Amino acid sequence: MAKPLKVDDLWLTRIAGLLDDIEFGSLHIVVHEGQIVQMERTERKRFENSSGNVSGRYIGEGGNRRADSQSAGR
Predict the structure, then answer these.
(1) pLDDT (mean) for 3-21
(2) Most buried pick, 2, 54, 55, 66, via CB within 10 A?
(3) With DSSP H G I counted as helix, E B as strand and the rest as coil, what are the percentages for the chain, rounded to 5?
(4) Cβ contact 30:36 at 8 Å
(5) Burial of 67 by CB count in 10 Å (0-12 exposed, 13-18 middle, 19+ buried)?
(6) Phi and psi at residue 67, in whole multiples of 5°?
(7) Which residues contact 25 (CB under 8 A, 6 or more apart)?
(8) Tens-place pLDDT, residues 21-37
(9) CA–CA distance from 24 to each of 42, 45, 53, 64 (Å)?
(10) Taking a C-beta distance cutoff of 8 angstroms, is the pair 19, 26 a contact?
(11) pLDDT at 65
């Protein structure tokens, strides 16, 4: 039978800290015998393609996707 997961305030603070500044990504929490033993954070940086001389524009830190035909359907 599985042991119940033990999550105290320290772990909740750690999890919240890792999630706090992720804009695109995921947080994987590994549990072994009812205790958190590892957390893996994967963060994505998204770039928007441009048809001009600029190779791409970073979308993040308050950036927004364009709503025109170039970015529609993504």
Answers:
(1) 91
(2) 66
(3) 15, 30, 50
(4) yes
(5) exposed
(6) -100, 20
(7) 41, 42, 43, 44
(8) 888 999 999 999 889 99
(9) 9, 7, 26, 13
(10) no
(11) 42
CA distance 13 to 65: 31
Backbone angles phi, psi at 37, to 5 degrees: -120, -15
Tokens of 46: 């998204």
Are the beta carbons of 51 and 70 closer than 8 angstroms?
yes
Q: Is the pLDDT of residue 52 over 70?
A: no
* H or E stretch covering 26: strand 25-32
3-class DSSP assignment, residue 52: coil
Element (H, E) at 17: helix 9-20
